[in-house]
Amino acid sequence: MAEPSFYIGVIGNVISVLVFLSPVETFWKIVKRKSTEEYNSLPYICTLLGSSLWTYYGIVTPGEYLVSTVNGFGSLVEIIYVSLFLIYAPRHLKLNTIVVVALLNVFFPIAAIAATRSAFKDEKMRSQSMGFICAGLNIVMYGSPLSAMKTVVTTKSVKYMPFWLSFFLFLNGAIWAVYASLQHDVFLLVPNGVGFVFGTIQLILYGIYRNAKPAGLSNGSSEIAADEEEGLTSRAPLLS
Predict the structure, then answer these.
(1) Which end of the chain has fewer surrounding CB within 10 Å, N or C?
(2) Roughly what angle, to the nearest 10 degrees, separates helices 91-101 and 65-88?
(3) Residues 123, 60: contact at Cβ < 8 Å?
(4) Membrane-spanning residues where (predicted)?
């Protein structure tokens, strides 16, 4: 009979897939308009970086194949998102986007994997060093949900922090934190524990400000702001 962690991990995979697919509507708008307009590519580039490194971590760490499967799927999805940015980005932004993609999605992962493999001969040490890198990157990328929470407090509006995204951040963090506890994996536990806490705070803010009178951003910028929050999956993401 399968271990409880397996069933928890499967649930985590389903939730993470839903989060990875949450920006589909935004990219459908980009394709229809044939322009990324003012949307920011960095959240998707960072999510691709995190997903690719977590995929490698799941491969080299015994018993963590559920981590590699969901993040492998996430990497494929994020490659599509980033490719659409490269296709439809305005000319003055396209070169900068290409440079950032080359640095964060090509050079950095190759350098990180090569460094861990050359520095450590023991597979356990390689796994732990990659886990440290992945967890550290995810914690740094929590600037995104912090920014979303600041926007809600400043504008007194939850329009820029979609409920379902906050809910899945909360749920994703909780499920993967439980999985990490069962697997005794501190590298998964720490970032997902932080994600659970941030998701909880976002839901509390949603309850406080959902009926508040909005203030702040203009109507012209509100659609961009709301849609960009969907791109902050790196935010929590997908820390599995």
Answers:
(1) N
(2) 150
(3) yes
(4) 6-28, 40-59, 65-88, 95-116, 128-148, 160-180, 186-209
